[in-house]
Amino acid sequence: ATHSATNLRFEAQLRAEIGSEVEDVPDAISLLVYTGGEVPQDRHTELRATQATDGIWSVMLNEVELYFLIHGAHGGDGYNGTSGSAHRRSLASSGSATAAAAAVELHVAVKCGPDPRRFQLLASVSPSRIDAALTHAEVCPGQIVYFHAAHLADVRFTAIVHKGDGALLARHVASSSDIPLKLQPPYVPIGEGGAHGGGGHRRALASGGYDDPTVDLCHLHDGEEAYLAVFGGDHCMELEVKVESIAHADCHEQHGGGEHAGSETGAGVIDPGHFVYGSCDALSWVDYSLLLDASDSDYNFLIEVTDLSNGRSTSDDALSLHLFDGAEIPMDRFTEQRAERAVDGIYSVAINLHNFHEGASYFGIRCGAAARRFRVVVHRMDAIVPPDGGKHHGEVCPGVWVYHFYDVPATASGGGGVTFHVEKHEGDVDLVTRHGQAPVKLVPPFKYMGADEYEGSISLCNIKPGERLYLGMLGGDHCASYEVFATPLNASTPCEEPLHTPLAHAGRSDSATLSAGHFEQAECTAPFQYLDYIFQLDEATHSATNLRFEAQLRAEIGSEVEDVPDAISLLVYTGGEVPQDRHTELRATQATDGIWSVMLNEVELYFLIHGAHGGDGYNGTSGSAHRRSLASSGSATAAAA
Fold first, then answer.
1. Where is this region: Disordered (predicted)?
2. Contact 253, 216 (CB under 8 A)
3. b/e string for 358-393 if b means 16 or more Cβ within 10 A?
4. Where are the strands (E) in 427-539, listed by range?
5. What is the CA 319 to chain-centroid distance, rounded?
6. According to DSSP H, which parts of 27-84 are helical?
7. Which runs of E-coded beta strand occur in 15-106?
8. Who's near 514: CB < 8 A, 6+ residues apart?
9. Which CATH number fits domain 387-489: 2.60.120.680, 3.30.365.10, 3.40.50.300, 3.40.120.10?
10. What's the first-to-final CA gap in the chain, in angstroms?
11. How many angstroms separate the Cα of 309 from the Cα of each of 9, 157, 315, 341, 374?
12. Partner of 432 for a Cys bridge, out of 52, 91, 395, 439, CB 3.0 to 4.6 A?
């Protein structure tokens, strides 16, 4: 009753003796919060502040985290911030409306360092449901506080910032899966003292100082709430927030671009839509399970892990994220669904319609050579795109598929079409459409939305009543966040599906032709870039040969070649195309004597060229004897590919 729609913050500060100043000792004490109803024997918790920022040790439990603490797994999809919110999956059907909220006892501890210290401790609560009155809030680095308002069509949030820096992010929220959990464009950055680099998004006033930053949300649909997430920056920020209804003509919602400001045992159960913090020792694992039922098949689940050990500057391979097939973790822990390198600081894998199954889905996080702290969040994103033009938020990271679909009403007249619209805020993504079945690989027709494209659309035409139309979103070089909605087209409206002319991704080279005995010289201009080549095989030239590919590093004129055995990798694909995950067993990831080498010998080449038709016909030369003759095997007449 008291805390469901609030943000709860604990803070500690040092006190000085009368007549003296407070010492600046960032690690003098630690602030620890325990949520399990008791203080564990080892006193370990991930909710801790071991370093002060601006003299403050701060731990935040925002509205989303408090809801899951109070309601636990019984909260299900019932989370809505207020009892009046509408959901695509209703409270009644989820069973969470009748779940009794549990009384949760939090334990807070202050741990002194090696020296005696005097301190003061404060717990502060700020309401998340707000109105035109000013609501006070404080947020420190790495923290988020939420504010929201219902029953308004066009909304303006205003922040009156007294000190510190951070960012404001506003979003339409129809269900818990739409609540923003991380900072991504479009957002409004706020600089130190409310001025970002001399004002940032605050306009200088003639009387001196700056005006107050605002952010608008326009044309909210029935059942949607206006949400404002306030993110902490490099310093603790103190502010007041208010919300007001404005005329639609005065409403200016941001779109696209934005600005960027600069150990456990067993598998813990994780729920979508809120953060879980964890840690692992060097080369150890932490496992989690996500419990899904049949009704979850209409969602995409994006699992994201962020390394918290060194703030923003951390190694891209400090952790790895592994999503396991089936209902258990295999003994060898092998899986093809893994992220071994962070992109934009995020390790991500997805559960979509291809790998969804009811019950527990397990994923593990493994530390590299050093112990790490990390944060996990599971985004749940609607797959169904409604016919009424309603928008759904989505996110997708490199190499990951997320799917949306539109069900053509059975009563619809044939011959029309549907246009999927994507409003992209950041990153890049491929849009792939199909009639009746979900796309599984990037083949034409598709459209590519580059980093500088913020609005795109793609159509499916000549649709049939009752047909399901798919939009596949394949992550490009950077994680993308977007809104998606659909517009039905009647038979008289022009409709054009994309041509079979794929666009090259920025930073990826088109395939060049490679010839035997001829050097191709090139250079990688970006980290982890691929340079692709095509080598054509034919029977007349290559049947009785050994084929070897090799790569060597080149040095600048006047300098020596560096000895870096893992500087590049050489990969050969035999399936007629480069697979989307770029996996192949024909690869050299380490140099020997400065050479990366892959060999296809005479035997391997024969079976590549002749395939299954080659049968036992392989003889190397036409004069060789066989235990089974060419005539009896029938392979001599098989056409070589």
1. 620-641
2. yes
3. eebbbbbbbbbeeebbbbbbbbbbbbebebeebbbb
4. 429-435, 446-449, 455-461, 468-475, 480-489, 512-513, 533-534
5. 15
6. 63-71
7. 29-34, 48-49, 57-61
8. 520, 533, 534, 535, 549
9. 2.60.120.680
10. 72
11. 22, 33, 10, 16, 7
12. 439
Query: What are the phi and psi torsion angles at 172 (to 5°)?
Result: -70, 130
Q: How many CB atoms lie within 10 A of CB 168?
A: 25
Strand order in the sheet with 188-190: 144-149, 225-232, 166-173, 188-190
**Among 78, 241, 71, 56, residue whose Cα is nearest residue 142:** 56
Token digits of residue 604: 């391997």
Give, in order, the Cα–Cα distances in Å from 628 to each of 55, 74, 604, 605, 618. 85, 69, 20, 21, 10
Express each pLDDT in 593-634 by its tens digit.
Answer: 889 999 999 998 888 888 744 444 444 444 343 333 333 333
The contacts of residue 111 (CB under 8 Å, 6+ apart) are 29, 30, 32, 43
Q: Is 227 exposed, middle or buried (0-12, 13-18, 19+ CB in 10 A)?
A: buried
pLDDT in tens, 197-206: 333 344 333 3
- How would you label 185-196 residue by residue, b for 16+ Cβ within 10 Å and e otherwise? bbbbbbbbbbbb
Please state which of the ranges 69-73, 81-85, 188-192, 304-308 shows the lowest mean pLDDT: 81-85
Provide the pLDDT confidence category of residue 5 given band limits of 50, 70 and 90. Answer: confident
Q: Rounded to whole angstroms, how far apart are CA atoms 177 and 274?
A: 10
Q: Where are the domains of the chain?
A: 6-250, 267-380, 387-489
Measured CA to CA, the distance from residue 285 to residue 267 in angstroms comes to 10
Report whether 402 contacts 350 (CB < 8 A): yes
What type of residue is 195? A
What is the overall mean pLDDT for the chain? 80
| CATH fold of the domain at 267-380 | Jelly Rolls (2.60.120)
In angstroms, the CA 27 to CA 25 distance is 6
Q: Which two tokens mark 567?
A: 């500087």
Among candidate residues 78, 77, 71, the one with its CA nearest the CA of residue 103: 71
Q: One fold for both 267-380 and 387-489?
A: yes
Helix (H, G, I), strand (E, B) or coil at 69: helix
For tokens 């959990």, name the residue.
181
Instruction: Please report which confidence band the pLDDT of residue 86 belongs to, taking 50, 70 and 90 as the band edges.
Output: very low
**Is 381 in contact with 300 (CB distance < 8 Å)?**
yes
Give the three-state DSSP class for 485.
strand
Task: Name the phi and psi angles at 573, rounded to 5.
Answer: -115, 130
Q: How far is CA 35 from CA 70, 123, 179, 341, 490, in A?
A: 10, 15, 23, 32, 55
Residue that the structure tokens 């408090």 belong to: 66
Classify residue 499 by its DSSP letter. Answer: P
Report the alpha-carbon angle 579-580-584, nearest 5: 45
* Mean pLDDT for the stretch of residues 365-379: 90
